[in-house]
Amino acid sequence: MSISLQPISYKDPSGYIIKEKEGYYRYVSLQYEHEYDHLMHSGLYKTLTDQYLLIPHTEVEDKRSGIDCY
After folding, report:
1. Which residues, in sequence order, are CB contacts of 28 under 8 Å at separation 6+?
2. In angstroms, rounded to a whole number, what is the distance separating the alpha carbons of residues 24 and 18?
3. Phi first, then psi: what are they for 26, rounded to 5°?
4. What is the torsional sign of CA 40, 55, 44, 13?
5. What b-and-e string marks burial along 56-69, b requiring 16 or more CB atoms within 10 Å of the CB?
6. Does the predicted model carry a pTM greater than 0.85?
7. What is the 3 state secondary structure string of 14-66?
């Protein structure tokens, strides 16, 4: 299966975007683990999504080998 990296994520040092048949996915780099967890557990994510300042997302587990992500 080939992964289609999207150029829209070229300025994202914390991960990257890929496009697959069922939609777009953002992969978070292992180096961004602490910051991502802080965003999700501090209440900021909920505040921003409730105010429509951030697009909500659903976390999914990727079981493919060879992808280095959090």
Report:
1. 14, 15, 36, 69, 70
2. 6
3. -105, 125
4. positive
5. eeeeeeeeeeeeee
6. no
7. CEEEEEECCEEEEEECHHHHHHHHHHHHCCHHHHHHHCCCCCCCCCCCCCCCC
> Can you give the pLDDT at residue 17?
85
3-state SS assignment for residue 4: strand
Instruction: Go through the chain and tell me how many residues it has.
Output: 70
Q: How far is CA 48 from CA 33, 37, 63, in A?
A: 19, 15, 29
Distance CA 29, CA 47 (A): 23
Whether 48 contacts 39, CB under 8 Å: no
List average pLDDT for each run of 10 residues in the chain, which is 70 residues long. Answer: 65 82 87 95 98 94 75
How high is the pLDDT of residue 65?
63
